Amino acid sequence: MDLTGRTVVITGAGRGFGRALALLAGRLGARVFVSARALAAAQKVADEVAADSGARVDAFACDLADPAAIRAFTEGIAAHADRVDVLINNGARYLDGPDLWDADDDAITDTIASGATGTLLTVKHVLPLLRASAGADVVNLVSSAAEARDHRSQAHPAFYTAKTAQAGFADILSHRLRPEGIRVISLYPPDFTDGDPLDSTWEHASRAADSPLTAQSVLDCVLFAIGQPRDCFIRSFHFEQM
């Protein structure tokens, strides 16, 4: 797929899957904006993207639990770009522990704010730039934890709450933005194995029916969805559990 001339924004890009998304977007020719809670983490990835593909990339600090930080992040994007073609809502705090008492009140509040409110406010403040695109996509990395009666994860109930709220927001957003031609695509993966796209063997890792879901396969789903003709609105990807 060719993303030359397209502007891609990725939250939670300081490590893991967000970093992989940023590197891939750069390799495909996109103008890239990345954020992470710590500016140093975002800048490290931005430097990697620039060195890897020569893509234009800017880094920002953005705590998705902080509305002021989200506004500053989106204002920074607007200062460098006149539109956003792809917004990938990847950032969200994970919280471990099946019992309510496994986390304190601040961690619970932060988890719900970053995953739910953070996604909503990011879309709200990027929306003018999405509307300026000839064909914009909003991609949400949700989680199988948001699926009804999914009890497989040992995540804290706060994480389940955040992801369920994020899924509900994505559902109504897809309905309301479709008349404007803006697609909202949500992925509900279970836990998947990380990979490093700088490793030449990563793309060729074994992906058999009995293998764990890989980050490469999730990336392939994202590229498939945003690469479809504009009359094709793929609402969601749900993955069979092993």
What does this structure look like?
Helices cover 42% and strands 14% of the residues. The protein has helices spanning 16-27, 39-53, 67-80, 105-131, 157-177, 215-226, and strands at residues 7-10, 31-36, 57-61, 86-89, 137-141, 183-188, 236-238. The chain has a 7-stranded parallel sheet with strand order 3-2-1-4-5-6-7, with helices on both faces. It is globular. The model has no long low-confidence stretch (mean pLDDT 92).
Mean pLDDT, rounded to whole units? 92
Fraction of residues in β-strands: 5-15%
Major beta-sheet overview: 7 strands, parallel
Helix/strand/pairing category: alpha/beta
Q: What global shape is seen?
A: globular
> Can you give the helix content as a percent range?
40-55%
N-to-C CA distance: 29 Å
Q: Count of helical segments?
A: 6
- How many beta-strand segments? 7
**Sheet with the most strands: spatial strand order:** 3-2-1-4-5-6-7
The poorly predicted ranges are none
Radius of gyration: 17 Å
Q: Order of SSEs, N→C? A: EHEHEHEHEHEHE
